[in-house]
Write a structure and sequence with these properties.
Length: 145
C-alpha cells in the first residue's frame, strides 16, 4: 500500500499533493524514486481478517452476540430450505394424500442438520472457535432433496 503524508493512496485513483494533480495511472507508471521524491512511501497491506467475526486483526467481536446471530441464521436457512416441501404436508393434512417418504426424510434431515449445527455453534467457547467451526472444511453442508 502506498502512503502520502501517512494517508493511503488508492491505485488507479487521481490524487493531489501541493499544487500538483497526479493522474489515476501515476502510481502504476512512476518509479520508486519518483514516488519517494514527492514523499510517497510503501507499507505492507493491512492484515486480512474476516469481518463476520472480527472488528479488525486480532479484535474479535462479542462471542455471545455472534452465537445468537449464527444460530438465528442457521434456523432461517433451515426454514427457507424446508419451506419448499411444506405443500406436501398441507396436502396430507387437508386431503389425506401421503407426502412422499423421501420428502419426509429430507425434512427430518434438515431439522437434524439444523440441530447439529446449533449444538456445535453453542459449544464454541471463543470467537476464534466459532470462526474456525463455521469456516472450516468440516462444516457440514445442508442436505439436498
Amino acid at each position: 500500500m502506498f502512503l502520502l503524508n501517512g494517508e493511503p493512496l488508492a491505485i488507479d485513483t487521481p490524487f493531489t499533493t501541493g499544487d500538483v494533480q497526479y493522474p489515476a495511472n501515476w502510481l502504476r507508471l512512476s518509479t520508486p524514486s519518483e514516488k519517494a521524491a514527492i514523499g510517497i512511501t510503501e507499507a505492507p497491506d493491512p492484515e486480512a481478517y474476516d469481518q463476520r467475526f472480527y472488528w479488525g486483526p486480532g479484535l474479535p467481536k462479542d462471542h455471545t452476540q455472534l452465537i445468537e446471530q449464527w444460530v438465528a441464521q442457521t434456523k432461517q436457512t433451515a426454514g427457507s430450505l424446508i419451506t419448499s416441501t411444506d405443500w406436501y404436508i398441507v396436502r396430507q393434512f387437508e386431503s389425506g394424500v401421503d407426502a412422499p417418504p423421501e420428502t419426509l426424510l429430507y425434512r427430518q434431515a434438515l431439522r437434524s442438520a439444523c440441530n447439529d449445527k446449533e449444538v456445535q455453534i453453542n459449544a464454541t467457547k471463543t470467537t476464534d472457535d466459532l470462526a474456525s467451526y463455521l469456516t472450516g472444511a468440516d462444516y457440514p453442508v445442508w442436505p439436498t432433496s
